[in-house]
Amino acid sequence: MLLLISCQTTPQAQTTPSTAQPTAVASPSGELSAYPAQLPPLPYEYGALAKVIDAETMKLHHDRHHATYVENLNEALKPQTNLQNRSVEALLRDLNSVPEEIRTKVRDNGGGHLNHTIFWQIMTPDGSGQPTGAIAQAINQTFGSFDNFRKQFNEAGGDRFGSGWVWLVRNPQGQLQLTTTPNQDNPIMNGNFPILGNDVWEHAYYLRYQNRRAEYLDNWWNVVNWQEVNRRFQLASQQ
Ligand code: MN
To answer: What pTM does this model have?
Structure first.
C-alpha cells in the first residue's frame, strides 16, 4: 500500500531559504504581512456555511480565535524591528532566525494567522461536495478516486492527536501528499505547499459536533471551494 501520510510531530530541520521569490501561500496579492498582522474579513456571512458549520462557531473562530493569533503575533514582533518587514511565510520558513524567546510565539501565532487565512478562503456556501478541474484529475491519479482520497484525508484528520490540521500538499518532489501538522504548524515549515487543509482543533467543530470529529470531517467537504483549491493547486505547481 502506498504510504501517503506523514505526521509532523517533531520539529524538523528548516528548509534552506530559496533565493527565488517564493509563491505567496495565503493571498494572490503577495505574502502575508506579519507586522502589522491584520485580521482579514470573512469572505461570507457567519451563517453562510451553516449546512456544515454554525454561525456561532464561525463567529467565535474568526472574531476570537483568529483575532487572537493576529494580536499575539503583533505583540511578539512589536519590539523586533529587524523582523517587522518579513512576511509570515518568511518567518515560518526560517524559524531558526527568529530569536529563541519569541520563536514559539511566532510559530504558533504566525502559523495560526496563515492557516486560518487560507481556511476561510477554501470554503464557500456554494460547495458542491465534488472536486472540479485539474485538481480533480490529479487527485484521481494520486489516490485512485476522490472517495479514496476523502477517506484517507478524513482518517488522517481523525488520527491527528490533540489539536492540529490535516492537509493536502504538494511536496518538494512535486507529488500530491496527505499530511497532518500539530498545533498551528503550516506545511511550508517542512517545504510542502498547502493546497487544501481542514482545522481539527475542537474550537472548529465542538459546538455542533461535540466530540464527533469524524462527522465534522465528513460533512466539511460540502463547503469546500474547489475553484479556490484549483487556484492553489496551480500556484503550487509554479513553486
Ligand atoms: Mn482554528
So the answer is: 0.90
